[in-house]
Amino acid sequence: MRLRALLDSEALGLRLLGGTDELDRTVRGVMTTDLTDPSRYLSGGELVLTGLAWRHGPQDSEPFVRILAAAGVAGLAAGEAELSGAGVPEDLVRACARHRLPLFAVDEDVAFATITEHVVRQVSGERAGDLAAVVERHRRLMSSGPAGGGPDVVLDLLGSDLDLHAWVLSPTGRQIAGTAAGAAGGRLPAQLRAQLAGEHLGALRGGRPGPHRVTLPAAGGGVTYSLFPVGGGRDLRETVLSDWLLAVEADAGEWPPERLDLVHGVTQLIAVERERRDAARSVRRRLAQEVLELVQAGAQPGEIAARLRVAVPVLLPGTGAAPQWQVVVARVEWEVPYGQPGIAGGPVAQAMLEEMLAGADRDPADRIAVAHTGDEAVALVPLPALPARTGADGAPEPGTADSGTAGDRARKGAAESAGPGRGHSGGPGAETGATGLRASALLAAVREPLARALADDGRLTLGVSAAVHSPEGLRGALEEARHARRVAAARPGSVCAAGHEELASHVLLLPFVPDDVRRAFTARLLDPLRAYDHRHRAELVTTLEAFLDCDGSWTRCAARLHLHVNTLRYRVGRIEQLTGRDLARLEDKLDFFLALRMR
Fold first, then answer.
1. pLDDT recorded at residue 83
2. Residue 370 Cα distances to 8, 338, 494, 563, angstroms
3. N vs C: which end of the chain shows fewer Cβ within 10 Å?
4. Is the Cβ–Cβ distance between 554 and 563 less than 8 Å?
């Protein structure tokens, strides 16, 4: 399509600011960016959409426009939504005139997604020839919303018309949509989804924008998947934990240009659906933000309860009972080179929590309320209320849904949450039951893709509170989740989590022991054993660890190590001789236990 065709549609809200003589340029695609240097993502002929977040002063316009002109883009469209009525800056208008780059202003009432959809529809139709009908059917289905079938039906058309099996995945490996004729009737195995997501995120963080090709072992040989990013164009650290990917069971390196154009067009249409779903979360996000602000401001319980009563029908439709609540706090931190702008971690952590807390077959917008403040995100996770139980006098027993004090209920929730059977099925989207969720289970199936996304310069830490049953308990739950997150932050690794149950354990104290004290303590107790093991291969450290793990039981420890009891007694005697400690004494057992934990 030609640039001038964009001015024919009033619905696009475009106003030409310069470049009248260049309107016959051909538009081959569209890209949204706020990067100061987007050249790595440009191939020429794009209409570039920008919100001007890269511009911090008049001096920034010239280098930005110079980069676009050198890349051969067709034109630049600047959004006015964030300009407070001031209009597109004159320095940008002059820079575009110098480089003969057509410049448009985008009305503040028009979303970039509207322009993207229009350009993709036009360009794909012109390039794909007989595939234009497929693109048009995709567009109609996507624009018709949920009633039209959404991404699943779009991918089914790819399968029926082009024999392409494809799936839309979240960065955690959660399946958003899939071709019905593909693997397992449209559902990929969880391990494969996590592996594909991890490969894709690792390639993105490695500087390869896609599509990425990966061959994975399968029965009868390897299967090649081509992985296409859905969305993008902004700073990768802001989007890598939230943007979707399209996985196609085929080798895109063997495709003709027309087919590549078609699939790229489909990813842009799916990106529109991604934005639509993201907008649907706004009500829940606002509710969570309001509750969080009330809790942090020390509002009266009655005021918090009133806001929670508004939240319950939205988050748990169809239930009249006041639920239990758990609080999850997450923080995403990036190492930023000196002199470069920082990345706000709160919105990134918010998107990540929404994905991790989503149901396996449910969009995060359905039930999860996540707010963000500063560099952290806070999730309110509703749990079904405990059924009321009555005592002999007919009154509700303490700790049930209708019982007396908030303290009773909070303690009951904490005790049940920490007890056997707590948790869920593991993996992204596991459901939360009446007894709550565990921090370790939240990360069970998503640790690999998250670690690939965070690479060497990012870190995600997570803390989970016990369940509480009243507005009075929310403030304590928030502090509990924040304390648990700080425990997780003291651990090594790029993805770490801790739960409230660890706050009543030595686990809470160990991370905050200074490093020099830790080293001195462990060296005094364990170095003699390590030196002896090195000289004699005696495995004294392994024996000590097993002996403590078996609670000092000679028979159980000997069976675990496949030793005769007399041999075990000899080794323990040697440990006592080398260290001057007595493993029959509780204090010495405790010292050894802590030393092993602080290694």
1. 78
2. 41, 31, 22, 53
3. C
4. no
Distance CA 481, CA 332 (A): 15
Q: What is the β-pairing status of strands 166-169 and 75-79?
A: unpaired
Distance of CA 479 to the CA centre of its chain: 22
pLDDT on residue 319: 59
Q: How far apart are CA 15 and CA 576, in angstroms?
A: 84
The answer to whether 120 and 132 have CB atoms below 8 angstroms apart is no
Q: How high is the pLDDT of residue 506?
A: 63
Which whole-number Å values give the CA distances from 261 to 4, 29, 48, 123, 125, in the listed order? Answer: 22, 9, 17, 9, 10
pLDDT at position 359, please? 58
The model carries a pTM of: 0.57
Task: Pick the closest to residue 128 from 290, 270, 266, 249 (CA basis).
Answer: 266
pLDDT of residue 423: 31
Residues of the chain with pLDDT under 50: 127-130, 145-148, 183-184, 338-341, 360-361, 364-365, 388-434
Q: How far apart are CA 203 and CA 247, in angstroms?
A: 14
Question: Which is it for the CA torsion 364, 368, 369, 372, positive or negative?
Answer: negative
**Parallel, antiparallel, or unpaired: how do β-strands 175-178 and 212-218 relate?**
unpaired
CA 153, CA 117: separation in Å to the nearest integer? 18
